[in-house]
Protein 1
Amino acid sequence: MLKLIVKRLINMIPTLLVVATIVFIITRLIPGDPAAVMLGPQASVEDIAKLRDKLGLNEPIIMQYLNYLGDLVRGDLGTSLSYNQPVLSIIMERFPNTLLLSVCALLIALVIGIPAGIVSATRQYSFLDYALMILALIGVSMPIFWLGVMLVLFFSVELGWFPATGMGSLADGFGTFLKHLVLPSFALSTVSMATFARITRSSMLEVIKQDYIKTARAKGLRESIVVWKHALKNALTPLLTVIGMQISMMLGGAVLTETIFSWPGMGRLVVDAIDKRDFVVVQGTVLFIALIFVLVNLVVDILYQVVNPRVNMDKKGGE
């Protein structure tokens, strides 16, 4: 296990290097001069030139890239052009908000998606099975930005049940805070919810056909015990991989969700930074999300081997 962790941590370095390089190139292709945007339309050419020189934008692109990599090695993501603060401190201020939204969305997806997949698998080819899989297909295909707008129009504008935008604060009461969390969490959870339902159904159908499940039923065990204790445990292995992927996708999907609901997280931070041509914040935030992505995959690999110890045996045998 320790060998696996060390190996994966070493493999993270080239992955993050590739991400950093791609982000560096893309941010330099964003239309507009960051210095001109920062100084405003009334700025003179001389002032813009001085600010470009101060920001290092007049240096050759290769020198900018090498300086950028040197700062990353030292753990310095740079200083925001628009906030005039270290990028890392800005990210750390916004990351808990995105994490809260993603965790709530993941819980909703798991609580609804996995039972839906189990029910669909145990009632294969029934009306309920077809209905749940059609809903899952709709959930996978539904754009988050459209769903977010529809949720706001129906539950906020028409019914007035939930606030349309903002995060809320615990100082205003837990109920108020929770109301602000419901709509963006549900919007962000829909794709993952549908994916969990489909994967759980497929995995459960494969497991419940195994001989040990037939033996458990032959022993007279209740169907609920057979399904939830024996079948589900072995069906979780492929689901763990999907959960890891969905967590990473939620961090990316939060860009649209946080923009629609004005949620003060990293996704909203990236959108605002692009609008302000603050390429330093864009670079740092995307690289931070990439780091979270590879760390989540590492945790999933560890859990995968804990749930299914045969993975370790296979690897040892291969070695």
Note: The radius of gyration is 24 Å.
Protein 2
Amino acid sequence: MSHTIQDKRPSVADPHGSLSSARMPRWAPLAIAAGSAVLGCLIGMVGGLDSKIQWGLLAALIFVGGTYLITAKVEGSRQGKNQVATSLVWVCFLLAVVPLLSLAWTTLSKGSGVVDGYFLSHSMSGLLDTDEGGGVYHALLGTIEQVAIAAVIATPIGLLTAVYLVEYGRGKLSRAVTFFVDVMTGIPSIVAGLFILSTWNLMLGFGVSGFAGALALSILMMPVVVRSTEEMLKLVPNELREASLALGVPQWRTILKVVLPTAIGGITTGVMLAIARITGETAPVLLLVFGTKLINTNPFEGAQSSLPLYVFEQYSVGTDASVARAWGAALVLIAFVMILNLVARGIARWKAPKTGR
């Protein structure tokens, strides 16, 4: 009769010899975070730190250190290092989200009391900046027209440039285009405004107008569109291109019918990011559009206003009424950008290729 010999050696993964190693409970990270927040506040109060930001940073340091020590004690040093990396990711996420939420809450709380139907449908015509009342209609209209014109100019140029770089670009010309796109990405907005001022206004003799501001905004928008579209086109699998070309489809039609529809979601998001960037620009508008209290529906002639310029002007006055109007205009600007993003997501989902059957 044979006897089965059982191996009594301990498991390599478990130094204590048990078949299952100890694991932290699911609620442990939340408990450590709560304890770290309490300790950070206590240390801040005892140490006489007045800034709540310092309390938060102390709590973050305690959270990262405490996570490593507790996890390493229970699960081992390897899992402890893994939890430290996870904790750092969460801390960085909170550091990015907290200022954003604070900004959104401050704008909403201070601007919601001003924004109403009257504020959105009236301008500052006939009113001094120190007077009560008035609205943002002229600035909202100017922003919509200027951003729309800039998008019409920059989007096709940016898309075609990105298509050239990804699908056709080779050699010195492609490298030169890439270099100048990188340079344009980092130029300050005031430089774009000065360029249009020196060429369109001074050399060619055109006056201030919303179109001049849109030209400067399109310069700022183009490199963002090029870069985002270029990265999205690179993500399209080459197998799709090869399959289309193997069927005898011309390259231009392959790009139009296969490549662009596949990347339309990312392209639309990139365009919206570019629009969001130029929507809040003030310096080019101040130089080229000049600002006005009147409603000017013609972007090709005469001064116009815009939401960023309106916020700057009203906040500079410093009275209670003007500051309230500035916060209201800032809230309208944020809502405008959010609506554009929602529309872009809807278009991207509508135009994206269907994956289901």
Note: The chain is about 70% helix and 0% strand.
Protein 3
Amino acid sequence: MATTLVHPAPTTSGTGAARATTGTTAHKAPSLRHLGPNWYASVMGTAIIANAGATLPYQLPGQRVACQIFWVLAATALAVLLTARAGHWLHHRDQARAHLLDPAVAPFYGCLSMALLAVGGGALIVGKDLIGVPAAVAVDTVLFTAGTAIGLLAAVAVPYLMVVRHKVEAHQATPVWLLPVVAPMVSAALGPLLIPHLPAGQAREAMLLGCYAMFGLSLLATLLLLPLIFGRLIFHGPLPLVLTPTLFLVLGPLGQSTTAVNSLADMAPQSLAGQSMAGRYSGALSAFAVVYGVPVMGFALLWLALAAAMLLRAARGGMGFAMTWWALTFPVGTCVTGAAGLARHTGLAAFSWLAAALFLALLTAWLLAAANTLRGLRTGRLLAAPR
């Protein structure tokens, strides 16, 4: 995704420190200098293929094996990126600090959380076929814990920086601002996978209600930001061509929240302590999954149509490839899992068809983004200094 839009004016002392650091470390691992946190979006976009494909209502021969391959690709890409980003912080600390102080880049730290969570969840969805259930539980426990902690930190730290350090104006609002606050929603959607592997009683109930709390945290924060984003479009016109694909990021909290309420409703009967509490709330939570999910999915389809129209306009205007194209993958994938959850709870075939159609769109977007990313890496263009 794009890593530059607004750059803060450095202070005199900060500039001097940056020059000193650059002079001593910029020559080391030069290819990593401009590797930003936005690259984690490629891991998210690959992992969601595995997770969404394995949960589709329709399963074709060989589909699960293909999902396993995508999970291995995502896990491998995550390991490579974690190593590369560690090198970035080690050798280019000045640039890493500049990323945190850039309001166009800092929100992408939410992608680190979501990449960890997506690969961790995939371990229990399809990875367990390859590494076994105990290993899959261990992997997801580590990645879920780390991803949730980073996501909650980003949900606080990035808005804090935007308030006290970043200098932003209304016309600079983009859907990228959603990334740090939507990360806890991914935890809410994937946390239920661990519930059956926790001790019955308090541990399961705490996980269930903790996931509902993260659902609420992310949902309310999203509702605060969406008017800013839509207002920017109405009053200041279309986004720059390179940022147009980020309009699809709005689908992330919509599809992921629908996925979350359906997954949590599935786990409620075995999570709530005591027969009376389980009987009192399980039915209500199942009803909430449908009452909430159906209207939100309707709005997601409305936004999908608007974003697709804007994307077509940008393509006609000469939009070239950028890492922003990965915004066409993970958010659409969350709508796939959301539609699949609604199909499971309503029994309505239309939701199954919707999930399948969105999955085909997801596959197409992934092929385009992956092919162009590999080409950009081969030529070195994607790791070059931004112009």
Note: The CA atoms of residues 325 and 369 lie 6 Å apart.
Protein 4
Amino acid sequence: MRSSRRRSSLVPVLLCALAVLAARPTDGTDGDGGPGAGLGPQVARLYEDAAKATRRYEDGRRAAEAQRSKALEYERRLDGQRRTIDAMQEGLGRIARAQYRDGGGLPLTARMLLADDPDELMRGQRTVSRAHLAVDRAIGKHLRAEARLAAEEAKAQAAWQALEKRNTDLAKLKKKIESKLEVARSRLEGQADSSVTAGSCPGAVRLDQPDVPAGPDWTAPVEAYELSASFGSGGSRWANRHTGQDFAVPVGTAVRSVGSGRVLKVSCGGAFGIQIVIEHAGGYYTQYAHLAAVAVDQGDRVEPGQWIGQSGSTGNSTGPHLHFEVRVTPEMGSALDPVPWLSQRGVPL
């Protein structure tokens, strides 16, 4: 069963500076943690870099659209200026033709001698001169305006083309980063499966927590997701009804504690694979199952939104997802529907 409510993917576009990646561990080691110990943090860092790249890409795309609109507006204004100048030039031509028909080709002295009213002729001459001067000034003004607009248009076009090139470069790097992330995910999942098969739970691999301001007391267990199997739904994968809410997310997605509390249990093996159970005030417990890695140890205190592990597909799982439960005891069989429980605490899913 799929929920109609979706949230955007955490990594629609992936980017990471190659120099930064080169400086980070890519061989699956982290200090003295032994082979594979650095896979969890590596995946988490790649996710964070991808999220930052997404924001940069979207900012660049919006800026490119703004530049394109600006360039089109400059072109529209230039067309208007050209039409105005064409009309002025046509008007000047009419003045010249009329002047020729009215004897404008004769020298002014001759026209004054032949005129019935020389004063009237002079007044008319001054009027024509002022008209010519005004037209010349207007043409000069608009020619200068056209030059300025053309220069601004060129700048806008250059900026837009630079942004387009930037986004093209981002797209070229995309596959490289996706490949790194996919390899890290695969190795993380393989490491988790080996631990579950051996019945030996891996120790906590501490993740660098994101810098987030103090928020509400409760939050969703993952930041970006698609709701899949819901509480109480049936299916061949469960002996009875489904006891939690599933969040479809890629392997390695950061899993967060929904509220403050104490880590009561970290275990692996069985249907839930690698799992964490947290005790909260008020007699409630939350479970996070099918994980690929854990970032806390039993007895740790956790805060709302703190990263406690990474999603996977360990145990009885048909694909990467987080199985999340709310219970009234630490053990299976006491689960509540987590969707309304979170909703009552200001977390709509």
Note: The radius of gyration is 36 Å.
